[in-house]
Structure formats: structure tokens, C-alpha cells
Amino acid sequence: MASRYDVIVLGLGGMGSAAADHLAARGARVLGLERFGPVHDRGSSHGGSRITRQSYFEGPDYVPLLLRAYELYERLEREAGRAIALLCGGLMIGRPDSTTVAGSLRSATAHGLPHELLDAKEIRARFPTLAPQDDEIALYEARAGLLRPEATVAAQLKLAAAAGADLHYQEPVTDWTALPGGRGVRVTTPDDVYTAGHLVVCPGAWAPEQLADLGVPFTIERQVMYWFAPVGGTAPFEPERHPVYIWEDAAGTQIYGFPAIEGPDGGAKVAFFRKGSVCTPDTIDRTVHPREAREMAAHAGARLPDLPGRLLRAVTCMYTTTPDEHFVIAPHPAHEQVTVACGFSGHGFKFVPVVGEILADLALTGTTPHPIELFRPSRLGGR
Ligand SMILES: Cc1cc2nc3c(=O)[nH]c(=O)nc-3n(C[C@H](O)[C@H](O)[C@H](O)COP(=O)(O)OP(=O)(O)OC[C@H]3O[C@@H](n4cnc5c(N)ncnc54)[C@H](O)[C@@H]3O)c2cc1C
């Protein structure tokens, strides 16, 4: 029996909606299956803002992908007719030998990216909300800024549907099988059984359940985002004069934050980068406790004294972290007709459209011109 679909995409969050968009734009017959509704807050792609930047302290290998992601985000804004990026500038702050500063500088130098180095006095003069220690410096990148995750996912879903993709919501995949001899895949949901030539698996925090046979030890982490009403109002925190920032202390703890982008009553968002607790999508505690909020206010207040006025809200989100914090993007090692994208380790959103392009390449041609060697699952002792 001939399949109605060339490709099924499992999960329509950040990465899956990008894959559906790129696949449908190339003329593939696409079915997207999503457990929840379109643009939801149960996974990893919600909360109003994500940092984007190019001087990437996680490694220079990411920079070519970032340059392409910037182009594709611009294209997405044009095609969908909505604003997604706000490039308000970004500061990577810490001691000169911190991962945040030294790593960012390494990528900037390796790829000739425009940047400035500011000492503590220069930081205070240009950005008066920030109170660095005398031994802290910053790499400033004018093209850093933020992306709106909900607008990104909505735009990609809209374009995918307009290009003919069938997108089914409230329809979780309960089972998938790669058919022997490379004869495509069979995907089961409570509503139906579907066949297709290829399956793209973008399960976010459900990776341990959907991709157990990859053999990659994923850790699902509960993370909290906090919105504070600054003391004295949001004016000094508005994006015309306030950058995004990642700030590493002497112990290696990183916080990151955003300008106030939600109007005078919306506050400014701040969070710890990697201070999560282990959870599963079923067991995550979605309540944010007063002691956590006090810890965030104290840590942020020591650096941005006016930020933590009143706590307006706090929302949980999940990271899917690999042991080396690099992504997993590859053909499934055991099934050539399956492609996987997961383990984004808390830093995937800025790559969303380029991951969509890579997934479309892999699903339709088996290979991609993009450098994805770093993301092969076998590096982690998997199959
Ligand atoms: C608090 C927080 C802050 C972050 N900050 C940044 C940042 O500043 N910059 C940055 O670049 N990145 C950031 N990230 C990381 C980034 O947001 C993630 O890497 C990215 O959103 C992951 O996208 P995804 O598609 O893998 O997951 P998701 O968007 O969660 O999508 C997975 C989808 O799969 C669906 N699904 C799962 N199982 C099934 C099934 N069986 N059947 C059907 N559907 C299924 C889920 O419902 C979900 O919609 C942050 C993440 C968090 C949580």
C-alpha cells in the first residue's frame, strides 16, 4: 500500500515545527503529530524570550550554524509577516578566564565576529543597571539579542500548513516502528496508524521515552524563569538601552536575563542557566516555591541591584541535557529511515530554523552540507 506521506514529524515544538516548515516548503507530503495543542507551555519552547548570540562560548563549531540560523530567522519573519527577533545587543560577563568570557572571545576571534571588550568601568558607564565587580569584564556583541519562541513556533506551523502539511494536535505517538528493509515507518496514535517513507523524531523532553534505543543518557531538568518588576519602573530596562546578558560568577554559576519587552507592567525576565533539578515530563513540579524566588532575587540583585523589585510571575520549563551539553542531530544509527533531533541541553532555540533545514536535508536526501559531526549520538557511547 502506498503511504499518503513522505515524512512524519513526531513533536511540533521548536524543532518539529521547523522540520515541518522546511519539509513542506520543499514539496514533501508531511504529517505532523503533536501530543498537545499548537504553541503550548508544557515542553521547552515557551516563556516569551530566548537569547540569541554568535560569539558562542559553547564552541566555535556552532558559529557557521548560527550565521545560517540568523539568515533563516530573517526569512521566517518575512515569510510569516511577524516580528520574532529583537537584536538589542548582548553582554557576556565574568572574569576574563570564565567560560562565558573566554569561550565567547575564542569564537569571536576564530570567526572574525564583530565584538567589543568592556572593563567593569565601561560596563557600568554604558549599562547603568549593571553593577559588575572590578575584576569582571564583558564581551559585547551588537548582533546578539532575543527571539520570541511562541511567535517562532506559530510562524513555522502556519507556513507548514500553508504549504500543505497535515498537522494533528492532541494526538500523541504511542508507538513507532521502522519497517524492515528500509521500507519506511509505521506510526501509531490513539486515533490511527500511519505509514510514511521517513520519520523525524523531535520529542524534546520526551526523548528518553521516544528514543530509548539511541543509548544516550539524557537528563531532563526542571528550570525556572522569573519576571521581576524593577525598583523604580521598567524604563532603564527597556530594550532601546538594555542588552540581554549571561553573567558567570567566580564559582561558575551563570544567570541570564532580558530587557523588559512586555510593556511597563510586564517586568524583566531573569533565570539561572544551569541550576535545574532532575525531573520527567510527568513528574515535574510546576509550582515555583518562595525559597527559589528568594535565591534568584538575591543572586540577581547582587549584580543588577534594581532588577528584583517585586516578583510578578515564575514559570517552569524543561531542558533535555546530554553529558557534554552538545546536541544530538543525526540519522538514527539503527534505522536509516528515521532522523532524530534532541538533547538541546538548554541552548537550542537560537538554532531552530537551521535545525529544520538540516532535518529536511537528512529526511529527503540522507545527508546535509551543514557541519553536524559534533552532534552524532555515538560520541556519547550510544549505538
Ligand atoms: C527556561 C529555558 C530557557 C531557555 N533559554 C534558551 C535561550 O536563551 N537560548 C536558546 O537558544 N535556547 C534556550 N532554551 C532551550 C530551547 O528553548 C530548547 O532547546 C528548544 O526549545 C527545544 O525544542 P524541542 O523542539 O526539542 O522541544 P519542544 O519545543 O518541547 O518540542 C517537543 C515537542 O514534542 C512533543 N511530543 C513529545 N512526545 C510526543 C509524542 N509521543 N507524540 C507527539 N508529540 C510529542 C511535545 O509535546 C513538544 O511539543 C531554553 C529552554 C528553557 C526551558
UniProtKB/TrEMBL annotation:
Start and end residues of each FAD dependent oxidoreductase domain: 6-362
Enzyme Commission code: 1.5.3.2
Uppermost EC category: oxidoreductase
Cofactor: FAD
Protein name per Swiss-Prot or TrEMBL: N-methyl-L-tryptophan oxidase
InterPro entries: 3-OH-isobutyrate_DH-rel_CS (IPR002204), FAD-dep_OxRdtase (IPR006076), FAD/NAD-bd_sf (IPR036188), MTOX (IPR045170)
Family matches, as Gene3D superfamilies: D-Amino Acid Oxidase, subunit A, domain 2, FAD/NAD(P)-binding domain
Entry keywords, A to Z: FAD, Flavoprotein, Oxidoreductase
Lineage: Bacteria, Bacillati, Actinomycetota, Actinomycetes, Kitasatosporales
One Gene Ontology term of the molecular function aspect: N-methyl-L-amino-acid oxidase activity
A Pfam match: DAO
Gene behind this protein: solA
NCBIfam families: PRK11259.1
Record's keyword annotation contains Flavoprotein: yes
